[in-house]
Specification:
Layout lengths: L2 H32 L4 H10 L16 H7 L2 H5 L4 E5 L5 E4 L1 H7 L3 H4 L4 H5 L9 H10 L3 E8 L6 E9 L5 E7 L1
Antiparallel strand pairs: 1-2, 1-5, 3-4, 4-5
């Protein structure tokens, strides 16, 4: 494939991903606006949630999941049915949950401190994955969904990826096997 065709494909996929993210966000806003408010249910939910843990469970499909990660307990982050990785701006892993450990075959203690794009998952060091991460850092915001195939040290594995930068500047990669 020529560089021009690759560039055109990348641009098309990025635009499609951006449109999809905007539609999901709008759908969530519309649903929230249409939902009836029940103060009793809200009070019950607040009373049963552990302090400091914004959510007892996290949902990959929830458009607000990225902001929920920051306040979730380590126990909650490790009990999800999708991978969660927190990176600093240089791509160094700061957190690596149990699901991602099972998927990749890398123990969390071995992942923390490694550069995700160069050492841990070098198959992601490309324009499709790392390019989106870099663009998000440059823009100061990141909320990208895309489908990807991991191939490093594992059988090719098709996944959904959500890159997110929260309001406090934490960078998150969420990965769900398809």
């Amino acid at each position: 494939m020529s560089d021009s065709a690759t560039s055109d494909l990348f641009s098309y996929l990025k635009e499609k991903s951006n449109r999809s993210s905007k539609l999901r966000s709008q759908d969530a806003s519309d649903a929230a606006a249409d939902a009836p408010s029940d103060d009793a249910d809200d009070a019950l939910s607040d009373a049963t949630s552990p302090p400091g843990d914004s959510s007892a469970s996290l949902d990959f499909e929830d458009p607000t999941v990225g902001e929920q990660l920051r306040d979730a307990s380590e126990e909650t982050l490790n009990s999800t049915n999708f991978g969660i990785i927190r990176l600093n701006d240089d791509g160094v892993v700061q957190f690596f949950n149990a699901y991602e450990s099972d998927l990749s075959g890398v123990a969390p203690e071995d992942a923390v401190g490694q550069n995700y794009f160069n050492e841990l998952a070098p198959c992601s060091n490309n324009r499709v994955f790392y390019g989106r991460f870099r663009d998000g850092l440059k823009d100061g915001e990141m909320d990208e969904y895309f489908t990807y195939t991991f191939t490093y040290k594992m059988r090719p594995t098709l996944v959904d990826v959500h890159l997110y930068r929260d309001d406090e500047g934490n960078n998150w990669i969420m990965v769900r096997k398809r």
